[in-house]
Amino acid sequence: MDAKKKYRLCAEAAEEKHAENLVILDVAEVTDFTQYFIIASGASDRQVQAIADSIQDKMKEHKILPVGIEGYNEGKWILMDYDDVIIHVFYGPIRELYDLERLWHDAKKVRRRKTVKAGANKAA
Length: 124
Fold this sequence. Notes:
Blueprint: H1 3-16, E1 20-26, E2 36-42, H2 45-61, E3 68-70, E4 77-81, E5 85-91, H3 92-98, H4 100-103, E6 108-109
Parallel strand pairs: 2-5
Antiparallel strand pairs: 1-2, 1-6, 3-4, 4-5
């Protein structure tokens, strides 16, 4: 599966658990170890873990396993490595502390359309 499809699946899974401030960065031109970063937040350690679980479950459905996962037990900053897509799921205040978006300011921000669930009202 290509990296673009991977990041879309991961973002969708994060949104299903109401991840906050989801950002996707195309880091291919500024690093050689991955193509995309997904950065998202949760309002509690339990929500951070639920977001990570949702991503892992979605990827397993497509027979994709992570290279590694770190920080799950604490639920403050979970790093999920899917080779060409790396996901950072933060507890809100920890995300502000590390401010990865600032550290990777040279990366292109990926624009994506929000998924609209059936029966939901569309914004004008």
